[in-house]
Every structure is written in C-alpha cells, then in structure tokens.
Amino acid sequence: MKFSKKILKRASEINSRMIFNLDVEKGIEILDKIYPYLAACKINRTLTDIIGMNEIKRIIEQYPDLPFIADFKIADIPHTNDVLSKNAGHVGFDAITVQAFVGSDAVMAVQKNLDVILVVAMSHEGAKEFISENTKKFCELALNLNIDAVVAPATRTEEIKTVKEILKSQAIILSPGVGVQGGNFGDAVRNGSDFEMIGRTIYDVKNPKEIANEIYEKLPFKK
Amino acid sequence: MKFSKKILKRASEINSRMIFNLDVEKGIEILDKIYPYLAACKINRTLTDIIGMNEIKRIIEQYPDLPFIADFKIADIPHTNDVLSKNAGHVGFDAITVQAFVGSDAVMAVQKNLDVILVVAMSHEGAKEFISENTKKFCELALNLNIDAVVAPATRTEEIKTVKEILKSQAIILSPGVGVQGGNFGDAVRNGSDFEMIGRTIYDVKNPKEIANEIYEKLPFKK
User: Fold this and answer.
1) pLDDT at position B155, please?
2) Does B80 contact A46 at a Cβ distance shorter than 8 Å?
3) pTM to 2 decimals?
C-alpha cells in the first residue's frame, strides 16, 4: 500500500494526526507507551547511528499497524540514494524523506524502491537562505514525479499554505517544528497540513503518555 | 589537527592525491590492500547502514595515519546536524560532508563538533536543477564560515575552476565522479582540485592493488 494511503488509514482508524519523532534511545520506551495515539513514527539518523539498523528492524516489527518513516533527509547522487532507500526498505520502513534540492534523478532513484516524502521546506532559520526561495519549484517537482507526501514546517504557516495551494489534494503535508521549535499544536493542521511531528516536547516530561494524550486531543483526524 | 592540514600532511608523505570511497562491505578488504596509496578514506552511509557505527569505529582505529571522512552529506536542521556530527566524531571520523543548501546555521552546528567538508557542487545530472546555480553562493558561505575543505565534482571541470577562483587557497577541493561516473583520473586535479575520489573503478576489478597503483601514479601530490 502507498505510504499516503497507509498513514491516512491509520489516522482515520485512531482519529489522530500525530507523528512521533523517534530520534534518541529513550524514545523507544516512550514509543511503547504512546503508540496508540500515533498516526505514524519517524526515525532519524541520530538513532540509527547509535543502535544500528538491525535494532531498528526489530522495533518496526513490533508495531505492524504503525507506518514508519525513515527521516534520513537523503541528499546524495542517484546511485547512492538508490542504495540508501533499498536498505531502508529492507528494515521495514514505509517511506523515506528525500531532499528535493538534489534534483529529479536523485529523487527518482528512490521512488523505484520506497515511497518518497519530499522535503520542500524546512523549519530552521538557515532554510531562508536557499530552501524557502525554491519551495514552489520543489512542489512542482513533487507534482511532476507524482509524489504524494511532502514535508513543510509548522513554524512557517505561510509556507504550508503555499505548498497546499500548489499540491492541492495530490500530496499530504507532514509538518515538523511543533513544540520546542516554536510551532503550536494544531496550527500547522489549521493552515493546510495533514500531520504534525512531535518529539522533544514529549521527551522532556515526567509523564509522556499524559502529554501525548493532551496533544492527541488537539490533533483529531475527524473534525 | 584540522582536517585540511591532516590530509595535506598525509598526501605529502605518501605523494598521493587519491581518496578511497569505502561504500560497500567488500571495500573493507580492498582498503587493507590499497591504504598505502591513499591520502584519505571516505565512508558513506551505504556502509554504515549495513555494518553499524561500532564496526566503523573498529575500521578507523586500524589505520591511525589515514584521515577518515564521514561522507554523510548531512542536510538536516541545526539540532540534528549537531547530534549527527557529534556521533561521527565519537567513532573517530576527522571530517564530515555537509550540504551547503541547508544554510549557515545548520553548517555552523556541525563546526562546533567536527571539521566540515562543504558540498558546494555535485556530479549528477540533477545537480543542474538547483545546486549548480547556487555554487558561487555556497563558496561564499564557505569563505564566511572559514571552511577549509569543499566538494566539487570531477565531472564538471568548469565548476571546479569557479570554486577555485572564489576560494583560492582558503579551502582544499575534493572531487568525486572519477572513473565510472565519467571523469578521467587527473582531470580534476589539473583543473584546480586537490584530491580525487575513487570507488567503483577499484571495486569491479580482479586486482585492486594493481589498479590503485596505476591511479596513484596519475595523481602525485608533488609535481
């Protein structure tokens, strides 16, 4: 099943637009407490570097109903992107984030192996230097390559609107930058995003399940 | 010691401008045969995904005189780039490749932990879409951040010339794309590059040591 369909099915079933950022080791335990609230889980290189891909495979296998995203923001030449996405597919990921700025052929090399979530905008200050000015072109690239999921930051709602205007219903929008990075829960969704990514906000609290439940209630899938 | 000094010292000692791309498992055995010819070794995510970072640490420790590059082309937000580069430093890498496209703050987050090799140009066809038009600006970013090593492809000698003109003696230039990707050994160096990266050319031959020696003779450090 295509990634966008898989995550929308899960979102509808559990009535949630929340994605968990599993990027440090202590998150593994938290995932086990909060997974009933999650539409998907994304795993960063910061975790694969520490525990290795075999352990990642074991985690993914424990949650067969939960879509998993390799948030690797791959940005290499086509041959390398091909190998990296094959490896991510082998451990069980449903989709992988790819930097649009590397160009069409590098993105297409991934599509042969795994569903692409295209990074068309980013949440940090430095994104204004080279990324923001190309966001529209990155969206056109997504249209041309029939990509059905993109990343656009919760911290810049105007960019989410731009992305939504260009992609309309072709692609779902996933938004990082909520919580510690400055975005408020629900803002991205209200501006056209489909899913919000939550990480550091949950890590630094005493009762992650309680906080997950609070955020969950702010991010219903059904209105 | 700064990465640029370390690789130039090694290059001078063994009279070579050759960097080996260790990107698949069978390369580990080849490295052991050809390391006397190498100015440095770069390791891609394609290998860390398969054998894990602990095994990477073990390999790096075996060659204390050889500079190692984490060719991870990292392209994430500052917080994530910070963690990724710390991890790479912990396993013993001397430097890490970073995509200039993500902007100043994301690059500076790495500089606190590890020497940066800035990707200012790339070798594949798709690089013409968004990267090539920004190469000059990426070089100015390198100047502003006192970066002393950049990547520019052997397949586009005109881009190497442009990079050299802007950076002059501030930064060394490392060039991928030699061999299978189309560049001839020595062309990049003749056009202003300091080091050429060799990978698939050596992997697909019967006697890697013989081929390494042939390439070595085409890439002397001293003229």
Assistant:
1) 86
2) yes
3) 0.97
Interface membership of A182 toward B (CB under 8 Å): no
Query: Which range marks the domain in which residue B164 is found?
Result: 3-218
Domain count within chain B: 1
State whether residue A105 sits within 8 Å of chain B by CB. Answer: yes
In angstroms, rounded to a whole number, what is the distance separating the alpha carbons of residues A107 and B130? 13
Catalytic residue (one of A9, A33, A73, A209)? A73
Q: Determine contact: B124 vs chain A, CB below 8 A.
A: yes
A6 is catalytic: no
Contacts of B27 in chain A (CB under 8 A): none
Phi and psi at residue B80, to the nearest 5°? -70, -45
Active site residues of B: 73
Say if residues A60 and A32 touch (Cβ distance below 8 Å): no
What is the CATH classification number for the domain harbouring A12? 3.20.20.70
- Give the helix/strand (H/E) hosting B95: strand B95-99
**Length of chain B in residues, anyone?**
223
Closest Cβ–Cβ partner in A49, A77, A101 for B123: A77
A113 falls in which pLDDT band (50, 70, 90)?
very high
Identify whether B116 is part of a domain: yes
Amino acid identity, position A15: N
Residues of chain B with C-beta less than 8 angstroms from the C-beta of A75:
73, 75, 99, 101
Taking a contact as any Cβ pair under 8 Å apart, which residues of chain A between 139 and 158 contact chain B? 141
B178-208 pLDDT tens trace: 877 677 889 999 999 999 999 888 998 899 9
Chain A hits for B103, Cβ within 8 Å: 124-131
As a whole number of angstroms, the distance between CA A9 and CA A175 comes to: 18
In a domain, A91, yes or no: yes
Given an 8 Å threshold on Cβ–Cβ distance, is A124 in contact with B137? Answer: no
- Neighboring chain A residues of B83 at a CB cutoff of 8 Å: 23, 46
Note whether residue B212 is domain-resident: yes
Contact A10, A65 (CB under 8 A): yes
What is the per-residue pLDDT across B138-171, written as a single tens digit (0 to 9) for each? Answer: 999 999 999 999 999 988 889 999 999 999 999 9
State ipTM: 0.96
* CA pair distance B38, B30, nearest whole angstrom: 12
**In-domain check, residue A97:** yes
Contact status, residue A26 vs residue A90, Cβ threshold 8 Å: no
